Amino acid sequence: MTTLTPIPAPIASLPPEPTPSLVYVHPGRLAVSAGPDSFATVVGSGVAVSVWDPVRRVGGMAHFLLPEAGTAPPAPRYGDVALRSLLDQLAALGGRSFRAAVHGGSAPPIASESGHLGDRNVAAALSFLTLRGIMVVVRDVGGTGARKVVFHPVHGAVEVARVAVELTR
To answer: The pTM is what?
Structure first.
């Protein structure tokens, strides 16, 4: 009589959870993620727009410096280009129903006839989002000085800290 020895079943191993990282979004750049990554930047008169889909858990951040490209070659330093690219990249990750947070737009030391740059950047961001039906659920704009913004798209949470700058003469 032959005795059969059962072969142990292989232990199924699950892939490791992705390690969250903090991605710094440089001025004039953007970044997106479908994972646990968070995004950080420091804004002054520029604007950081954080966009996420709370159901599909994708999100990203654009940090632009000027409201629109006009006749200049398209680049993400311009709000119209950066925000369009941000939404396109999030849609490619499956995002459809977005929420947004807008930060920055501080007054630079020099104003122009058409209002200061920070105000124009904020107006460009809010107009772009409104035209696309994207609800702005967090807004911290204007004033003076810089802000450090950390955005966690998986939860739609944003941390903001004012950056104190000491001027010396």
So the answer is: 0.85
